[in-house]
Amino acid sequence: MRRPICLLIACCLFAFALPVLAQDATETGTTPTPEPSQAVPLSALDLDHVARAEAAAEDARRYAGDASSYLGIFESVGVAIAVIVPVLAVIAGIVGFARLNQARTELTRARERVEQELAALRDSVTDELRQKQSELDALKAELEASARDERLRSEQATLALALLPLADRQYHVEDFDGALDTYHRALLLDPNNVVTHYRLGYVYTQIGKLDDATAHLSRALDIEPDFAPAIAALGYVLRRRAESMDIGSPERGQGLAEAELMLRRALALSPKLVDEDGESWWGSLGGLHRRRGQVDDAIDAYERARAVTPYSSYPLGNLAMLYLQKQDRARMLETFRQA
Fold it and tell me: Which candidate, 251, 261, 194, places its Cα nearest to that of 221?
C-alpha cells in the first residue's frame, strides 16, 4: 500500500514542476542587448570596468532567473502539497475505512462463531445435565425402592424369627403338624432363613419324611455351606437311608460311609454340637459305628457324647451295652449305675 502512494506523490510533483521549469527556460533565454546610441571611444581602463559591469549584470540576471525558477518550483510544490495532502487524506480515509470495515466484519464473524460455539456448548451441557439428572432420579428411585424392600424384608425376617420359638415348643410337645405349619409360615416371611430350613428338615426326619428333610437341609447348606447343625442333620438322614437298605449291599455301605463323613465334618466344625432334642451328635456317629460292628469306634464316639452331655442317659445306656458286648462286666455295671 505504501509503494503505490509514493508513486502517486512523485507523479503529482513531476506534473506540477514541468510547467514551471518550461516557463523558467523561456524567461532565461537570450535577452536582446540595447544598441548603443553613439559610439564613444573608451580607454582600456574604462573598457575593463564596462566588461566587469556587464558580467556582474549578467550574473545578477542569472541569479534572478534562478531565484524565480526556484520560487516557481516552491510554489508548484506548495500547490502540489495543497492538492496532494487532501488526496492523501481521502485515500487514507478510504483505506482506513476499508480496514475498519474489514475489521468490523471479521469481528462480527468471530462474535457469531463464538456465539454459535457457546450455544452448542450450552446445549451439550444442558443435555448432559438433563441426562445426569435423569440417571440421578432413576438411581434415587431405585435406592428408595431397595430401601423399602429391605425394610419390608427386615420386618418379615423379624416376624419369622418370632415364630421360631413357637414352632420349637410345638415340636417339644410332639405337635409335629403344628410345628411344621409354624415353620412354613416363618419360611414364607423369610424364604432364605437357614435356621428355618434346618428345623423343618429336622422335624421331617423325626416323622420319617426323609425326602422332605433332605430338600430343606440341602437348601440350608446352599445358603450357608458350613452350617454345622444342617450338616450333622443331613448326615443322620443319610444314615437312616442307608440303614433301610439290605445288609451287605454296596449301596448300604456307601450310604453309611457318606453319613460318617458328614457327621465327622459337622463335629470337626463344632465338637460340642447337639441336636434339637439336646443330644450330642457324637451319639449319632456312635450308633453308625455300632451298626457296622465297629465296637471300639462306637465306644469312643459315645464317650465323647457323654463328655458333651454328662447328664444324658442316652450315651451311657449304649456304652453299657457295648461293654457287655466286649465282656467287660465291671465297666458295664459302673456305666449302668451312672445311667
Answer: 194
Closest CA relative to residue 260, chosen from 294, 284, 229, 224:
284
Question: Is the separation of the CB atoms in 273 and 228 below 8 Å?
Answer: yes
Instruction: Write the Ramachandran bin of 293: left for phi over 0, alpha for psi from -120 to 50, otherwise beta.
Output: left
Cell of 106: 471479521
C-alpha closest to that of 302 among 290, 292, 311, 235: 290
Nearest to 164 by CA among 145, 176, 180, 147: 180
Cα Rg for the chain, rounded, in angstroms?
66
Q: Which amino acid is at 283?
A: G
SS3 274: strand
Tell me if 315 sits within 8 A of 280, measured CB to CB. Answer: yes
Side-chain half-sphere of 218: how many Cα atoms within 13 Å?
A: 8
Is the Cβ–Cβ distance between 203 and 176 less than 8 Å?
Answer: yes
Among the residue ranges 107-121, 276-290, 303-317, the one predicted with the least confidence is: 107-121
Q: Is 248 left (phi over 0), alpha (psi -120 to 50) or beta?
A: left
Distance, in Å, from the CA atom of 310 to the CA atom of 328, rounded to the nearest integer, reads: 21
In the three-class reduction of DSSP (H, G, I as helix; E, B as strand; rest coil), residue 194 is classed as helix
- pLDDT per position as a tens digit, 175-225: 999 999 999 999 999 999 999 999 999 999 999 999 999 999 999 999 999
Q: Are 200 and 237 in contact (CB under 8 A)?
A: no
76-104: average pLDDT: 65
* Residue bearing the bigger pLDDT, 52 or 36: 52
Residue 99 has pLDDT above 60, yes or no: yes
CA–CA separation, 89 vs 228, rounded Å?
108
